[in-house]
């Protein structure tokens, strides 16, 4: 994957050409306040756009947050043969992030004695039904 700062590369020309040729996702970090309003990074070629939401939502407060916007690229070849984009449509990135967290966090939570029911709760709540397109 290739990651750039949206403010420093407002037109995404060189990176767009390079990442399309290499077939890798282009992630644009749009951290300046005005960046998301003035520049439409997804329309300029970015596949995933990240915003530092604390500047947009909370101002100079104490909160920390972020927004991830999927531009429509299937960033993984598949999960056991399932394409996230084909199965979930516009929610492909959120499904991939959730499934990745289930894969990585749930097994380690089983080993942690301080969270005995967490892993089973995650498995009951997120059974992969999100991959069925509605």
UniProtKB/TrEMBL annotation:
Q: Which SUPFAM superfamilies match?
A: PLP-dependent transferases (SSF53383)
CC annotations in GO:
cytoplasm
Instruction: Extract the InterPro entries matched here.
Output: OAc-hSer/O-AcSer_sulfhydrylase, PyrdxlP-dep_Trfase, PyrdxlP-dep_Trfase_major
Q: Which Gene3D superfamilies match?
A: Type I PLP-dependent aspartate aminotransferase-like (Major domain)
Q: Which GO terms describe its biological process?
A: cysteine biosynthetic process from serine; L-homocysteine biosynthetic process
What's a Gene Ontology MF term here? O-acetylhomoserine aminocarboxypropyltransferase activity
Source domain of life is Eukaryota
Protein name per its UniProtKB record = Uncharacterized protein
> From which organism does this entry originate?
Diplocarpon coronariae
